Amino acid sequence: MHDKLNQLIETAGRIVLGKENQIRLALCCILAKGHLLIEDIPGVGKTTLAHTLARLFGLHFQRIQFTSDLLPADILGSNVFDARNHAFEFHPGPIFSEMILADEINRSPPKAQSALLEAMEERQVTIDGETHRLPKPFFVIATQNPNEQIGTFPLPESQLDRFLMKIELGYPDRQAERSLLQGAERHRLIESLPVCLPAEQLQKAQATVCEVHSSEAILDYLQSILAFSRGYSEYPLGLSPRAGLALLSASKARAFLEGRDFLLPEDIQSVIAAVAGHRLRTSESGNVRSASVVAPILEGVAIP
Amino acid sequence: MLTQENQAPEKSATLFTLLVTLLVALPHVFHVPHSIFVFFIGLLGYRLAGIRKPSLPMGKTPLLGFTGCGLGLLSFEHGTLLGLEAGTSFFLVSLGLKMLELKRVRDLYLIVFLCFFVAITQFLHTQSVLMIFYIVLTTCLLVTALVGLSTGSILPLKRRVKLSTVLVLQAIPIAIILFLLFPRISAPRIGLASPAGAARSGLSDSMQPGEISRLSQSSEVAFRVDFKGNPPPVRDRYWRGPVFWHTDGSRWTPVDHPSGSAYPVDLSGPKFRYQVTLEPHGRRWLFALDLPANKPPGSSLTPEFLLLNGKAVTERISYSLISVPRYNTGSLNETERALGLQLPGHPSSRIAALVGRWQKPETPPQAVVQKALDYFHDEEFFYSLSPPLYPKNPIESFLFESKRGFCEHFASAFVYLMRAAKIPARIVTGYQGGEFNTLGRFLEVRQFDAHAWAEVWLANRGWVRVDPTAAVAPERIEQGFEAFRQQEPGTFGLGTLSLVESLGIFQNIRFAWASLDHAWHQWVLSYNAFNQHELLSRFGLADLRSMVLSLTGALAFCLVLTAFTLLKPAPAKADKGLSLYLRFCRKLARTGFKRRDNEGAFDFARRVIRERPELGPQILRITGLYHKVRYGRFYSSEDLNDLARSIQGLRIKP
Predict the structure, then answer these.
(1) Cβ-based contacts under 8 A for chains A and B
(2) What interface predicted TM-score (ipTM) does this complex get?
(3) Which residue in chain A has the smallest CA separation from B626?
(4) How many domains does chain A have?
(5) Residues B294 and B344 in one domain
(6) Helix residue spans in chain A (DSSP H)
């Protein structure tokens, strides 16, 4: 299993150059059955990463481009009257696939956003009083542009909370960029990727992640982090219990990825920026990178 | 708790309590009448049968019946409830009867607590080292029973025994502190002491031939002596006891002297300093090596050089003495001369003829003494452990007919002969010899070392010790009684001692045991109010007030300490791994690698290894073990030991 995962990381690294850490985090997110939010300026490879992951897991992939005039029905689907049968027929929208890429999610007004986010939480959609289950597994990888860009509708805290992780890609380093410039077209490369971890194996891996042991000592550390975030004056709101659970499951996925069956403080430390960054806001306004948001926590909480 | 205590006890708990009760009470088999002990065992047996067969009646009727039996037995055996023996019997019977009332866990608790009391009562009877061991052992079992009662059968028996042993061992230091500091009360044990002198063997205050030879059957310790320096040779070890003047021809008795100090005595020559630990014998006299040059505080010295204690020796006492074996007692007053020549009527013609043969007008008394000794030596006299009894004219029948006798026969015949020759003479009884314990460097004198010898008064020399036994059986005096007896064919009198004696290893064991016993007596049992005062005044705790104060202080200190340890959160098992890891961190910190508070062990290890790659394998191993112990799902104590060893073995060159 670990060989396959490592192979997967390596393969993805050939597409998304120089971003191994982000690939690992994204993988953690998927293993922990969480949804992923990628935030960065356009053109740094957000879509490519999402596309690559979908391909490597062999998941049915749909892309929804969020625009300012997107309606919920465009995402979820709608009942259409069939004149021949004299009946309404449900036409599923793009959400009925195993992996969704919700591109530039903050370009849409809240109505469309919330349609997606409800589906993410419930893993089902209800249209005209009829409930339709979404496929399993079901992942949403959303990308968004930094909020200061023109024409964006920032996601409210409660909706950000739906995403297990938010990662940032950033510009590639010089060498990676050179390889990118020299290499073949990304789209064609993705098309040629093999499936590394089929869906049923992924589900098995996800089940194993849940089994990772968290000792008393590690829970002490986790709780210290939560308590610290609630008492730190720079954070208007501390981490919620759901954030604590998210942190725990993301850390477990990272421990699993490292080949361990128990949690270490390092696991928490390496995922905390991605898990807690978008849930915490520092009192200074503007866009602050997740790493610097959680820095006081990493500095201030001693490992017991 | 209350509900648990009111529940019926488990069978195993009842069985265990029965067993422990039996063990605790067992030594009392020597202290109470046999019928009482059998009755007690019977009650335990009835209770045991009740466990097997629950239909056996345990109610009021059998209880009343048994109580009646017990009371009848008590009044038949003792007739009273006062006194040590009767009290013990009563206690034992009550304990047995309480067994029949055993219905709830609460009753078991009560019985266990009663058993603690029974254990203490053993000390009223004997205070030997063996008993201490036994009581500590049974105390462990009693605590085990208590642990079992409060935990039920959750803990396996082995764990319960271990727990209780640890508890008892923890209590021992407290017991020692209390022993040393708690005020020693030197109150007489009224009503508890066994009847004075009745059961004790030892010398008596009169002498009749046959009495001392009876003592030779007893190997009880009479006293022990610690010499400062070397002990005197065996032939000089005459331990002076009562002196007898008056005789009716068979029985010898002492004379009540007008109290006064001993005569001025010339005591020049080598001195022996020693300390005697005397077993209780119910009389006043204190034994001393011939002749004592001082007297212990509270005692007096009679004109016949017998040390008398202020009161009868009913408890073990110890006293320091200086003795001088070469002495001259000087002149003799008229009263004493008359006493020293006293005879019951005129000596018979045979004795007169015998003495007449030795005594020419010009012969000095010294030569007469020598002739008498020669007579014992040359004629066919035998030293015998079992001489015949001489009911009539004992001295004459001994001298002329059987010629077989023990030391008292020789001594009394010799004194009689001397008196017939008009030389003042008297009998001295006491002990001769004793066994030197080479291991503990002390002399042990037993009852079978009891001896009788003679003293004659010679002008210019005063009272001179003459031992006619030495003329007949010099080995008895040269080697000591025990060694002598082994040479005597066919007399295995006290086979036990003689047999083990022939095997060197057993002698060593015996010496070791005697040393332990002696040390126990000297350091523990003789720790009285006086010794305590002496000990504590060395630490500036001279008076009771400051002692109570320091005792309270020590207690308060201990309590505060206990409170602190109890208030501290109990360290979980995993924290052992943490404390080991922190030791590892301290070790690394000394070489400049300080782990930051928020740094994970693995990150830290990586940072160190970057700088010191040669430590890599060791550090990774330690970190891995630490992770397993602290964060892993399972770990064995072997992992913990492994971690400790690895950290121990980590050597970092600066």
Answers:
(1) 48
(2) 0.80
(3) A264
(4) 2
(5) no
(6) 2-15, 20-31, 46-56, 72-76, 110-122, 157-160, 174-182, 186-191, 199-211, 216-231, 241-257, 265-276, 290-300
